[in-house]
Amino acid sequence: MSNLSTIIKERHSVRKYNPTVKIAREEILGMLQEATLAPSSSNLQPWEFIVIDDPEVKKELRLIAMNQEQVETSSAVIAVLGDKEMYHNIDQVYRSSYEAGFMDKANMERLIASSKNAYPNASEEIRKNIASFDAGLISMQLMLIAKDRGYDTVPMGGFDKAKFAERFDVPERYFPIVLIALGKAAAPAFKTTRIPLGEKVRFV
Question: Most buried among 2, 67, 81, 201, by the most CB within 10 A?
């Protein structure tokens, strides 16, 4: 396995892809499986994915995504959706942990009760903020996993989310957050700089 620091330094947002490179769905599922080890609020995993790898569908998506070339030329586009009703996962999540031997029955019941008291009573805005934050964690993890496997990515927030939801029959419970193009670079990514760390950090 590659050194994590090297992967982080080598990962750049790529917008030029080799359109002849195809990634097997099984491999994409493997990357997503690893990515789902990302943390989430109360482990409720408020995310869903739509993987668009059909060439004709990618052409449609390109129009929804502000005509960004990488949508069509990448091997696949992974849409990360947020789940604003993540409280529906409560029983499944904690019962699964109990059955796996990760907690006792008393803890399971306590966590189920406290989560059912908190999440359904939170405002939709709060729940969407939680889902968006957790989607960011899993998206970054996915991009690093892809780089470790020799692929390139670029996250895209510039797309018509309403049209996306309509075209891909996104249930009301979910909302699109980001599109991640996945494939093999056909040209180097533009290098970028960072604001000096001293301007961004203070110790107290």
Answer: 81
CATH of the domain at 180: 3.40.109.10
Work out the angle at residue 19's Cα, subtended by the Cα atoms of residues 181 and 16, and round it to the nearest 5 degrees. Answer: 55
Q: Are 2 and 173 in contact (CB under 8 A)?
A: no
Q: What's the sign of the alpha-carbon dihedral 111, 113, 115, 117?
A: negative
Amino acid type, 68: Q
Q: Is residue 191 assigned to a domain?
A: yes
3-class secondary structure, 133: helix
pLDDT digits (tens, 9 = 90+) for 110-137: 999 999 999 999 999 999 999 999 999 9
Phi, psi of 104 (to 5 degrees): -85, 170
* SS3 sequence of 58-104: HHHHHHHCCCCHHHHHCCEEEEEEEECCHHHHHHHHHHHHHHCCCCC
CA 159, CA 95: separation in Å to the nearest integer? 37
Question: What does the pLDDT read at residue 2?
Answer: 60
> What does the DSSP assignment read for 151-170?
-EEEEE--S-HHHHHHHTT-
Q: Is residue 204 part of a domain?
A: no
User: How many structural domains comprise the chain?
Assistant: 1
Among 130, 140, 133, residue whose Cα is nearest residue 180: 140
Residues of the chain with pLDDT under 70: 1-2
